[in-house]
Amino acid sequence: MNNKLGVMQGRLVPKYQGRYQAFPIGMWQDEFKVAKGCGLDLIEFILDFNDAEENPLLKLGGVGEIAKISKVTNVSVKTICADYFMEAPLHSTNNKVAEKSFKILERLLKTAKKLKITDIVIPCVDQSSLETKEAVDRFVEQITKIIPRIEKQDINLSLETDLPPKPFVELLDRLNSKNITVNYDIGNSAALGFDSDEELEAYGDRITDIHIKDRVLGGGPVVLGGGYADFLRFFKRLQKINYKGPFIMQAYRDDEGVEIFKQQLAWIKPYLESRM
Questions:
Q1: What spatial distance separates the first Cα and last Cα of the chain, rounded to whole Å?
Q2: What number of H helices and E strands is found in the chain?
Q3: What does residue 274 show for φ and ψ, rounded to 5 degrees?
Q4: Per-residue pLDDT tens over the stretch 136-160
Q5: How confident is the model at residue 18, as a pLDDT?
Q6: CA dist 145 to 35, 106, 110, 175, 177, Å?
Q7: pLDDT > 90? residue 20
Q8: 276 pLDDT above the threshold of 60
Q9: Three-state secondary structure call for residue 251
Q10: Is the whole model's pTM more than 0.90, yes or no?
Q11: Distance CA 253, CA 20 (A)
Q12: Crossing angle, helix 165-175 and helix 133-153, to 10 degrees?
């Protein structure tokens, strides 16, 4: 497989504070060793809103710690999922929140440069959904300010949205930068009832990060193959696109994480290997 295979941070350790997806303070170092044992190339780091300053992405000395453990385990960090912006959207109507979030993004870009990060995923879903024209306008205004910097740094802001294909393309066209790209989440798109062929036709060439997940239509996550995602159809269509980015396992998790992850990794591997 030419593409790198990784895992969303926290999926290989017990739930942190009982939360489904969170930066696992005090456990994140252990996850690199587990990832290595699973034959993974990458961990997609999470920047949480909770305890953000305790995250090595922002904490003094944290970058060195990440680099050291990556070197020892040969498991890299090349992408960041900035869940922080789900709780404190860059396009918040609260100016103080929006300003602080923009400063967090600037700090994250500094860290990204040191770690040679390729993509920062910006989630625009749930609390940070771009569900109104005003929200889209505010988002465009904020992101436009950072475009010269990301282009100079050559790092992608990979947008994950719940927009249908046409409005999503319109948003990408408004931002008009090769470094504003798409994070495609297989499960989230399925849960929204979107057509993966239509999505890939619309913006497949702009996808730089793919999350592997399954969900029921209009509902939550389930084990791979148990939901509404048509993996065969998706991967068949993906063959027509020269996708070079990583595949990040963000599949269903239980309280412990590792065993159910291994089961799902075995399930998805034939699809991934078809891309060799």
A1: 4
A2: 10, 10
A3: -65, -15
A4: 999 999 999 999 999 999 999 999 9
A5: 61
A6: 36, 11, 16, 10, 12
A7: no
A8: no
A9: coil
A10: yes
A11: 7
A12: 50
